[in-house]
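Dig into what follows:

_____
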Amino acid sequence: MQSYTIGQAARLLGVSPDTARRWADAGRVATHRDDSGRRLIDGRDLAAFSVEVAQVGTGEEEVPYTSARNAFPGIVTAVKLGDVAAQVEIQAGPHRLVSLLTREAVEELGLEVGMRATARVKSTSVHIDRT
C-alpha cells in the first residue's frame, strides 16, 4: 500500500503542510514513521480522511481549484468493479469526482483506494490518469 508524507497529503487535501501536521498531531489521521523518521500516512487512511474533510470542510479559507486543462489531482477513495464497467471516485481537495469507465481500464491503470490519480474533465466525461 502506498504511503504519503505530510507534505504530499497536504497537497492532496488542498491544505497547508502545517494544517496537515496539526491534524496528524491531534490524532485526526493516523501516521507512522519510516526508517528515516519521516511521518507517513497510509493511503487507505488518507483516502478515508479526505472524504471526511470534504464533508465537514477544512476550517481554512477555501482556495478555488482552477486548471486550464481541467485536471484535478487527488486520491482514489472508492473503486467499484462490475463485470464490464467500473466506477472510480477521486477526492481532489474539496471536490469529489466520479468516473464511469471500463473494468479493463481500471485494471490496466492498477487503480485502488489510497493511490494518487488525476481526474481530467472534458465536457461531461471524466478521464482518470494514474499519477
